[in-house]
Amino acid sequence: VQRTLALIKPDAVNRAAEIEKVITEEGFTIVERRQVTLSQADAETFYAEHKGKPFFETLIEYMTSGDVIAFILSGDDAVARWRQVLGPTKVSVARQEAPSSLRARFGDPGNDSKNGTHGSDSLTSAQREIKFFFPDLTLE
Ligand code: ATP
């Protein structure tokens, strides 16, 4: 069993109930859930690996435009399986290649930032991102 960090991004928070239904239906357990507003500094830290990329400013503006909801999900092969549920990064691609994926259903196809949801891309990222959103939590 693994744990991963899932995020509902600002544009999809108003559809959190539907997304949480998918989380449960896909067999994940919600270990923790937290709704927060990211500061500019928070968002820059979370996405530090993208600093310097052409879309970085847009991404930070988007991620600080409203609340996000962070989840710790647990389940078998949770990291890869949650990425599968998300679908491709670009919503336009997701709609073509994985129409039932979360990004296809809840993202904005006209905007490469506003894909609605996030998931850790590796076990190492999952550990870092869980610590980022849930710093007070001690997980074995
Ligand atoms: P990762 O777990 O590696 O963050 P990801 O599928 O979210 O995976 P990344 O390529 O890492 O995708 O990009 C991080 C986020 O930045 C995306 O989820 C999206 O919101 C935004 N983004 C990515 N590419 C672009 C782009 N070309 N233009 C605007 N925003 C982008």
Please tell me about this protein's structure.
- Helix content is 41%, strand content 19%.
- The chain contains 7 helices and 4 strands.
- It has one domain: 2-Layer Sandwich (Alpha-Beta Plaits), CATH 3.30.70.141.
- The chain is globular.
- The chain has a 4-stranded antiparallel β-sheet.
- The chain is of the alpha+beta class and 140 residues long.
Order of helices and strands: EHEHHEHHHEH
How are the strands ordered across the major sheet? 2-3-1-4
User: What small molecules are bound in this structure?
Assistant: adenosine-5'-triphosphate
Count of DSSP H/I helices: 7
Question: Could you give a short account of the major beta sheet?
Answer: 4 strands, antiparallel
Radius of gyration over alpha carbons? 14 Å
In CATH terms, the superfamily is Nucleoside diphosphate kinase-like domain
Low-pLDDT regions: none
CATH topology: Alpha-Beta Plaits
What is the mean predicted local confidence, pLDDT?
Answer: 97
Strand content: 15-25%
Alpha-carbon distance between the termini? Answer: 12 Å
The CATH class, by name, is Alpha Beta
Family: Belongs to the NDK family.
GO molecular function, one term: metal ion binding
Subcellular location: Cell projection, Cilium
Binding site for ATP: 9, 55, 83, 89, 103, 115
Task: Provide a brief overview of the structure.
One of its GO terms (molecular function) is ATP binding. This protein has 140 residues and is of the alpha+beta class.
